[in-house]
Amino acid sequence: MLGDVAEPSIYIVEKVSPTFKVMYSVKNIIYSGKTRYQKVDIVETEDYGLALLLDGLIQSSEVDENIYHECLVHPTLTAHPNPRRVLVIGGGEGSTIREVEKHNVVEEIVMVDLDGELIDLVKKYIPWSKNAFEDKRLRLYIREGRSFLEEQPDNRFDVIIMDVTDPVKGGPAEKLYTLEFYQLAYKKLTEDGMLVTQASSISHTPSIFQSIVKTLSQVFQKTCYYGCYIKSFSSMWGFAVGSKKVLPIDLEAGEINKIIEDRKIGDLKFYSGEVHTSIFKMTDAYLRFYKGEETIIRD
Fold this sequence. Notes:
Spermidine Synthase, Chain: A, domain 2, five-stranded antiparallel β-sheet, 12 strands
């Protein structure tokens, strides 16, 4: 009976959107402190297992971080015919580069993150991604992502993966979602280059999601979007892709499964050819219910 269960003493209340909050209980606080850029909490929760919070918002959890990171990385990397040089902007937790490293065709991974202190904390407390920083193909820079990209030669990267926080006004990632940023990224991509970005909550902030997709479409010849449900985010979460040639949505399940086999991509807990095709169809179905006001995001 529920009445026999002791009431937890610690709860975290998260503001998912201006009109929606969620609350969940914490069993144990592993770490709580501040870096130069943000507040960091690493906690054990009842519902999500071990979880990483930045500025009071859950960023990753033991129960479903694989769903988020596999969906962010693999649809685009499998769609690209030869992703040799990959740039990851953000992704301080290390799980994004962990998924990139599973592709044996990748020769160089450049990761740029603003918060080196966070990466040190991840290596100490987050077991599922700390080994990703040991890959010999990785070059890690503690820098602001946009200024770093400005310094790179044109046609430098095959794929750019954006794993940064939402474009909150005045926030550190605000100018990593704008038309001007995507124009910059376009120049730094090869002739068949692709960019994928996390694109906020489809269900709670659809205007942000649809604005990111619309802004990408002003720069790239081809765009598509997809999403998957993330329990720890209490949301259907969105992703958007801009491409100069091929799009992930163009590939069928059988093609994806063959690429997974050919590249010997192992240890996939969520992603597959069948999941690949379903995340596009499912997102279109959800968008019948969640409509936002789309705008082009500018500097």
